[in-house]
Amino acid sequence: MLVLHGTGVSSGIAIGKAYVLHRERPEVPEYMLPQGSAEDEVGRFIAAIDAARTQLERIRDHIPKSAPPEISSIIDTHLLILHDKMICEAPVATIRTKHYNAEWALKTQSDELSAVFEQMDDPYLRSKKTDVGQVVDRILRNLLVPSNGEHEQITDALDGQIVVANDLTPADIVLLKHTRIAAFVTNLGGPISHTAILARSLEIPAIVAVHNATRAIRNGEELIVDGKLGVLIVLPEPDIIAEYHTRQRDIVSLKRELEAIKASRSETRDGTEIALCANIELPDDVKAVTKVAAHGIGLYRTEFLFMNRPDLPDEEEQFRAYAKVVKALPGKPVTIRTLDLGADKRAESTSRSVSTVTVNPALGLRAIRLCLHDTSLFRPQLRAILRASALGQVRIMIPMLSSLGETFRVLDLIEETKAELNRQGQAFDPDMPVGGMIEVPAAAVSADLFAPHLDFFSIGTNDLIQYTLAIDRVDEAVNYLYDPLHPSVLRLIATTIRAGKATGIPVAMCGEMAGDTRYTRLLLGLGLDEFSMHPSALLEIKRIVRDSSLQELKRRAQDVLDARDTAELHAIVEKMNQR
Hints:
This protein is an alpha/beta fold.
């Protein structure tokens, strides 16, 4: 028996035979074109683009209407990348000017884009380089093997098997779902990639980042996949198989229980209501929000209006996107985070005002710093958000606040924008709440200074933990240090919550910690008012909330903060979760 570990990205347990999918990235030839053949090569490249578009559209058209909305939106994202000028036009210019063959021209451009994404400090945005790479691979396969559709057919004989691959694209996942695979395991990948998001949406147990899985596992070997813990067992003993069959039955029972509480109130046993909201990044994601009866949207990421395009979205385009979400959730709060791009992860069109050189992008000109540096980015977004506030319960959230000076400048710009809209006769909510995202340790330590000037806090744990512990959680050399239960992190969270309560403003959390059931009771005990997470996690968090006594948890949470030993701290949290 062999036990391998990776990153569990989609909960569930699968037991089945391995199907090892060997499909390496195509070898890309490099050669100079014969004189006078550049236009023929351009035509070959365009034909490969067209074939890739047809393949993606065919996959999208075959998605069942009952499927989660994330599937179509992710395939649409790949189609948008395919139409991006950096993908479909820049290689053409290279073919014509440098006389490279189409494959090499595309690879050269892809390598440049990959380097840009690699410099991004935000793990969520950095992971999007995977999507670009997957689209490029599709085009390359069409160039190297003119498409007759064969490379779209993985196999029809995978029912109940566990696919083991180097990597899988979202399109692969859609195709594999039709073959009713039991689970999948990949060498590469991360928890916030589109592949991971799709696995969660389709409820396919999955583990990524299992290094050398395709080498360690052979076709037909018995496997157990624990998608929650990220554990892969190869050739398990009979007693282990029996244990995991029992766990599978428990998971089925839990799903029935979660479905039964969907319409129930999210309140503790002692009657305290807790707001459970969802995080989204695209307007179509709102369908998943309504499916789990979320209280509202606690984080609407707006970056993807600005990404993968040569120009900026104007006020009207932004307004339409925000309005679509607000109208789809009548009577529910929609928290729109302002642009969280940076000098290292910006739309191409912003490059005119920002230097491309940065020593440490995580500490550079990003988020609200960039917006205040270049208000031509910020003002149209403020106008669009304020106009959307006339349609429902809109809240605006400012990322990466680190000083009161920044806060006052933002508030002044909002007031200026309100006055401008008033003069123009544009409708908006004059009392639209303005909140701050607490993700910089300086803001958490000084939360009592920020609280009187804001209407709510939302703790962004992803960055708060990384900044506090001085580590990058996607860097394999140091990510073992990433610990949401580190005493310093917990003290910053507690400090922020106390400051909010002392001032009378609600405190939410929108980082991954909010959607992790291991920390729900601790956060309740610390006094968190609102949790915001991926929609797929919401019902399980609700179940824990409804089975918790707040007064008891407050006492235990104080014990956690008082603990002087890390092992003792973890033990207390474990006991909190054993109710």
